[in-house]
Amino acid sequence: MFRSSIGWMLLGLVNAANVTILCKCDCGPNPTIFIVPSCSACIRNFCIESNACSNTTTNPIPWTTVCFQRGSVKDEMIIYGFIFITGILLAFALGREHLLKLSKEQDLYRRLPQSLQKLLEEESN
């Protein structure tokens, strides 16, 4: 279980490395969001060329461009770490009673004299 969890976490790292960079053109009542290759591409000319802010010459409303990322490696690793630790704690909580029962049975079995152990083994077969 531990090895497969590490594999999933590494796979999450690879996916988390592909962060989506977005540009928000906020001009007027309807802001528009576009995917851009880098934050340096998120400028006023980009918004005008993509027809997000076409009425800027006739309408003197001030407008802005904002570059942001959706998700990051750090955020995803915190989430995967939380899920992993929660899963381990849940598995331990669910299996705790069973493990305690097994350990008590094994402990009692070890304390029995050899003759009783052989007798119990013969009855179980």
Account of the 3D structure:
With 125 residues, the protein is of the alpha+beta class. It is 57% helix and 14% strand. Strand 1 (20-26) and strand 2 (32-35) form a beta hairpin. Helix 1 packs antiparallel against helix 3. The model has no long low-confidence stretch (mean pLDDT 77).
Give a nutshell description of this structure.
With 125 residues, this protein is α+β, with helices and mostly antiparallel strands. It has four helices and three strands, in the order αββαβαα. It has helices at residues 2-16, 44-49, 73-111, 114-124; strands spanning 20-26, 32-35, 64-70.
Notable traits:
alpha+beta; 3-stranded antiparallel β-sheet; 125 residues; 4 helices
